[in-house]
Description:
This protein has 106 residues and is of the alpha+beta class. The chain has two helices and four strands.
Amino acid sequence: MENRRLVVAREDEQDDRMKTFIFKGEGHTLGNALRTLILKNPDVIFCGYTIPHPSENKLHLRIETKEMSAADALREGLEQLQSLSDHVLETFETAVSDFKSKQMEV
């Protein structure tokens, strides 16, 4: 786990629909955003995260699904978060550009 930012806890677990993913170097910002997006998937039964200890720089994200694999639910959540982040950045940059243009007119 030393070099990888994402590992699966107990990879030998038989059921692919129930997994705990450990993100190294992440905290509440990623955990809450991912949990919120993943829970919008109708196939997801449970999604929650914990920070095991404040001195540990780790995020544990647990996903349980009906049919799809937990890894697929995580992948979809990460893709949605990327898309949402891109949209927010684009909207922000457009607003800043518009603001600067208006300031130049004054």
